[in-house]
Design brief:
Length: 88
């Protein structure tokens, strides 16, 4: 079985924002963000869905786009880090 994703597209407008997964209530402050169609039948909750892949200060998260809500600006620490690495 070959697992593959379509070509990721960077989504710079999500960097430095505070976003919420409306299904879990968890919030994230991405320092990087890519969008693509996820293809992996081993993960039926994501398989075939358009997702955001968030790079975070500590780790990463993949969430279907329809579950994401932008709720404001990221913390000063995250914004400063994004500026330091040239993302903002």
């Amino acid at each position: 079985m070959t697992l593959k994703k379509n070509k990721p597209v960077e989504v710079p407008e999500m960097i430095g924002k505070k976003v919420k997964d409306i299904t879990t209530g968890k919030t994230y402050e991405p320092i990087g963000c890519y969008q693509y169609i996820y293809n992996n039948p081993n993960y039926p909750d994501l398989d075939g869905k358009e997702i955001y892949h968030f790079g975070l200060m500590l780790g990463a998260s993949q969430i279907p786009i329809e579950n994401i809500e932008v709720i404001g600006e990221a913390s000063d620490e995250v914004i400063d880090h994004c500026k330091k690495i040239g993302k903002l």
